[in-house]
Amino acid sequence: MYNLLKLDLHNYRPLRDVVFENLRESILTGRLKPGQRLMEIQLAEGLGVSRTPVREAIRKLELEDLVVMLPRKGAYVTNMSLKEILDVLEVRATLESLAAKLAAKKRNDIDIENLKQISKRFKKLTEKGNKNDMVTISEMDIELHHCIFSIANNKSLTKSTKIIWEKEYKFRLSYMSDYDMSLRIADEHEKLIKAIIDGDVTEAEKYALNHIKNSEEYIINNATLKSAEL
């Protein structure tokens, strides 16, 4: 029933913490989808634990706004409205363009090689056109953006972006699962990476901004199409 990550029972931390982190990551990576109901018994059975740590984890997830408790209905993965999604992307566009600008200034030979390898793997995976790889594609997309922020080497910027990334993870798969979109993202990555490698601050900033704006446009159009179908 649930597409959960494998629980590491060999971890020596308290079981409630292990269950919480497992469920949290499952939500952020899209394995547990927005709007999906979280039933304690099924979750406990799927993870091979009792209901108590699952119940405690759900309460903590509610405090992080990743889960919402509905009266007489139970716990559900928080579902973001279109307005909330666009607000997140609006902030992310500013932060990502700044990170790209800084990365273009600070990159070194090791950074350049890392960016090339990530871009190559991302393109190869998207060209396969296998929808079963979409979670992997999404994770690799995250890896690339984390790499750019690492090169930018600005702790305040990275800290500010962490909250935005976590909010976006919940709806990332909704547009990453579109094959044409993933191909376009791969092409956008190549242009962004080239600008950073070339040390072109203006182009890096521009492509980073366009990259997020294109995602925003896709989500708006997709939401409009879904509304028209109802």
From TrEMBL:
Q: Could you tell me which Pfam families the record lists for this protein? A: FCD, GntR
Q: Which UniProt keywords apply?
A: DNA-binding, Transcription, Transcription regulation
Q: Which GO terms describe its molecular function?
A: DNA binding
Q: Which SUPFAM superfamilies match?
A: GntR ligand-binding domain-like (SSF48008), Winged helix' DNA-binding domain (SSF46785)
| Segments forming domain HTH gntR-type | 13-80
Q: Which domain of life is it from?
A: Bacteria
Descriptive protein name: DNA-binding GntR family transcriptional regulator
Q: Which organism is it from?
A: Metaclostridioides mangenotii
